[in-house]
Amino acid sequence: MLLHSSSCHILRTEVHQFQTFVVGCCLSTVPAWMSLLSVFHFVCFSQISATMIYASNMTYQEGWVVVNEMPTHVETWGGWIEDPAIKDSKELLICVSGNPGVTEFYSHFLSLIHSTLKIPVWIISHAGHELPPNALHLKYPTVQDKPELYDLDGQVTHKVQFIEKYAPEKCDLYFIGHSVGAKIMSDIMKNYPHINSRIKKCYMLFPTLEHIANAPNAKFFIPMFTYLNRFILFWAWVSTLLPGRLRNMIINGVMYLSHPSGVTDCCLTATDKLVDPVVVKNVFFLANDEMGKIKDLDTETIEKNLSKLRFYFGTTDGWCPVSYYENLRKKCPQADAILCPSNIKHAFVISSSHDMADLVSKWIKEDK
Question: For the whole prediction, is pTM greater than 0.90?
Fold first, then answer.
């Protein structure tokens, strides 16, 4: 159903199960596709594989709103952002994603948390990381027109405006900040006290809070962005010319070759959205901005909010190595920081949604 209001256009659908794509039989003829998706796997997902089923047995809705001039995809479990009943909620969990900020990567993870806690759970896309359906006729400035809407500071403003407009005023707000989402949440807590005062707890998962340009994965990403940017954008553009069924077959096949144990349907959907030249350009733009802006650890903000923060670091994280965990422990010894004992990867949403959903649900129960 397509809803219209004076402030936004919303496309809403009831709970549904994503359909599994057919595995392609022509992968040997598309080496460029293999290269393109392989690059995304290294930068965004790393080495991961598991078999999972997307949970869809609870009240789920998704739609689009305009936030800070940008069409924004929203997924909710347990109450849509404009439902009258949501105003009476006593608790709300909002997830701020990493980069790329495509909501479907987190769908399985967040649905599991909702099924455990029975509280409303929301996630929104990053500005420019998902393109609205053509049927909505939503216009928005490009990254060339207004780069300030797409960079790290723009993503912070984007989340602030969403929270201010839609989060109920009289409820405990819990946040998940994954990867650069943790940095976004840190900046919100630092610069927006009226929101920080409403935060009950913030869970920083595999947080990229310092010197991301010096991380091991950056040694690959920076040359790739410098020398292969146009090549990747070209093949992303080529993908838009392919028939939808062929495109889906290729994406499905490449994903299963990379992760033979299987991937969730929601992650296949997210990958399909990601491989678009406009989205790729916006994702790269944010990543490049992160490299230049995320420098020294903001110990002042952490120390001021110790009671609200939990940190979870990986042992094999190419974006947030163990040395960053050790630096946090050294500079903020009272911080509630854990080094993962289970070898969970940075992109946990691909292979470890169950484990991380159990952990975050346990934390929220303890912190109530």
Answer: no
